[in-house]
Design a protein that fits this description.
Elements (H helix, E strand, L loop, with lengths): L1 H66 L1 H20 L21
Helix pairs in contact: 1-2
Length: 109
């Protein structure tokens, strides 16, 4: 009789432990899933808004380009140089008409 009673208690103990584990793990997993879904939705919304902004910016540039092609082309070129040049490091501009290898600098005169 004691063995049957112990087996019943052991069974109830295992059931209780399983329910406890379930109540601990399942809500945590659901919460993590919900966070992942919300993060993905936020990322998707960010990508959509960036794409809309890029499209609107392109459309505005294109409209200006249609009005004045040469001016817009030159402006875009100069804007790109303004972005790229600071990242290049030291820059040396060489005059192809220069006769001497190193021109004399008159500093302080």
């Amino acid at each position: 009789f004691n063995e049957v009673n112990q087996a019943t208690q052991e069974k109830e103990k295992l059931i209780y432990q399983a329910k406890e584990e379930y109540n601990k793990e399942i809500p945590a997993a659901r919460g993590e899933a919900e966070r992942t879904i919300k993060a993905a939705e936020g990322y998707a919304l960010d990508r959509i808004n960036r794409a809309k902004g890029d499209a609107a910016r392109f459309k505005a540039v294109y409209e200006e380009y249609v009005k004045a092609k040469d001016v817009t082309r030159r402006r875009l070129y100069l804007e790109m140089l303004k972005k790229v040049f600071p990242k290049l490091g030291p820059k040396y501009i060489v005059d192809s008409d220069q006769k001497n290898l190193l021109p004399l600098l008159t500093i302080g005169k």
